[in-house]
Amino acid sequence: MNESELNDELICNLIIEAIDGTIAPDAQVLLERWRKKSAENESTYQQYLNVQVNLDKISERHSYAVNDSWEALDRKLSKFDKIPFETQRFEEAPVTPARTSFLWFKIAAAIMVILSAGYYFIASNRGYVTIDSDKDGITALTLPDGSAVKLNAATAVRYHKTEFNDDRRLELLRGEIFIDVAHKQHSRFSVDLGKVEALDIGTSFNVFRNTQKIAVVVEEGIVALKKRSSNEQILLKKGQLGTYNIQKQALMSLVNNDLNYKAWLDHHFRFTETPLHEVVAQLEKAYHTRIRIAEPELKVRRLTADIDYEQIDSVLAVIAASFQCHVTKDQETYVLSDR
Known about the structure:
The chain is α+β, with helices and mostly antiparallel strands.
């Protein structure tokens, strides 16, 4: 299968397979490309995840009547009988509101088939919705309470879709996220980080997790970074960094000196006498690309600049002008060279 073969029916199947966890790697790549193709496509995908809350309520009814549900679905589908539905190529098939709705009902029909067979794909994951971003871009997610989450590349989170509004807990499985928490007066938002958790007190903050450490940087408000096995915690205010060493099981708070902690999201970099090899490391992380410095003497040259560009080509052009060096590209790798 390739992009030119994608149509509404195949997209429907890919979305269901992705959430079901049965999608093939090459099909996952195609689905991610389709999501990035337009805002409408991504909106369809995200709304599909959110609508599962309502579908779960159906599946939880012990008196669930399959025939009645099919009849209700047929009545909805009949509204679209007059909509032309031709197989269009991926490059020429933007998702209009009418087509989006039609696609939604096709997805619903497929889910009804699964339900009538006695199996619901979310049930296998105990009611959790898992979002796994691809390795080359940022994924935007709106949680059921209205909180906005941005996922860096190769990041995975999950939450319980039916219980989230009562227990606002988001689990960061790996990677990096930035959260703008929706304020709820009597409900605290938390990020589950394994042996520790980040408890929000009305704020926005950045969270990073790998196998060695956990790091939280507070942009606004207050966050408590707390061990789950005890009452030990640290309170973090705006501009502070909290870390947890997984091997030593140690919490620490300090002033955040990394001005570019959120550059992966907003692509705003501030460098002050920063060695070029450190600059390149940050750029590779933010733009998900490879950059090689050809000469050792070029690696230690220092950059002072305020850079704010969406495209890596523009950033490297600024650096090349600053150091009077050259930028070339060797397949998928950018090369900075004095020659």
